[in-house]
Amino acid sequence: MTPKRIELDDRFAAAFSRCITSVNARLAVAPPGETAEDKRQRYVLSLAAIGKFFGDLDQPNVAKELQWLATALFDLDDGTTHPVLMARKREGGGRRPDSGEVWSARAKVAIAVECFHRAGKLDSAIDVLIRKKRAALERLLRPGADLKTAPFGWLEQIKSGQTTNLHARGRWEMFEMHFGSQARTVPEWADLGNQMLESAAADASRLVASEII
Fold first, then answer.
1. Residues 192, 93: contact at Cβ < 8 Å?
2. Which of 3-7, 56-60, 166-170, 174-178 has the least mean pLDDT?
3. How many percent of the chain have pLDDT more than 70?
4. Which residues of 62-88 are buried (b: 16+ CB within 10 A; e: fewer)?
5. What tens digit of pLDDT does each residue of 14-51 get?
6. Is 19 within 8 Å of 55 (Cβ atoms)?
7. Distance of alpha carbon 178 from its chain centroid, rounded?
8. How far apart, in Å, are the Cα atoms of 143 and each of 106, 156, 208?
9. Cα separation of 99 and 140, whole Å?
10. Is 158 in contact with 170 (CB distance < 8 Å)?
11. Would the pLDDT of 91 be above 80?
């Protein structure tokens, strides 16, 4: 059945405004100390708001699908996992791959290393800078890995395409697009490296607080 056409009229504008206001209030800023359950609740309420938007525009099927997903997420708090939310079973066993959020934070560390290299810093000096954020960044390591070598390994994996994680590859491609060909001074590269390292540490701390790692 062909969906009913959405008219871009005053009703659309009013519904869109309500939806944006509701979603923005829930997703614009993450509360400090947020748990995974708290974060999921924000997603549930946001999905409900988007579903209501489509419902207000006489798109009941879309509204129903979004409401179903919101309910499935909500049910996780009661211990019920719907099949669509279950992770795919790995063949042959072994450790499950790390999440995209973890790899995104690792990519920031790798980009920081790249920036420090472009600033002319030796690996030993970069290691000193990384260890200043050790408390947070160590949480990004896999069991048995060492913070002294792992960041350089992440950089090599991402640059060479060895990692298949889309989040890490996407962040590297964005870096290359915006900064790769730029002629920057040594202090500018060093400053960018420090910014990326600070951001990675903040991401790692947030993931710990949210019980993702």
1. no
2. 3-7
3. 96
4. bbeebbebbebbbeeeeeeeeeeeeee
5. 999 999 999 999 998 888 878 888 888 999 999 999 99
6. no
7. 19
8. 15, 19, 16
9. 10
10. no
11. no
Per-residue pLDDT, 6: 86
The whole-angstrom separation of Cα 192 and Cα 16 is 38
User: Residue 57's CB: how many other CB atoms inside 10 A?
Assistant: 20
Residue of 114, 92, 98 lying closest to 164 (CA atoms): 98
What the block records as the tokens of 139 is: 């949480």
- Maximal CA-CA distance, the chain: 64
Nearest-Å Rg of the Cα atoms of the chain is: 21
Instruction: Compute the C-alpha angle 213/190/194, nearest 5°.
Output: 25
Q: How far apart are CA 185 and CA 182, in angstroms?
A: 10
CA–CA separation, 208 and 167 (whole Å): 19
Residue type, 6: I
Sign of CA dihedral 202, 203, 209, 213: negative
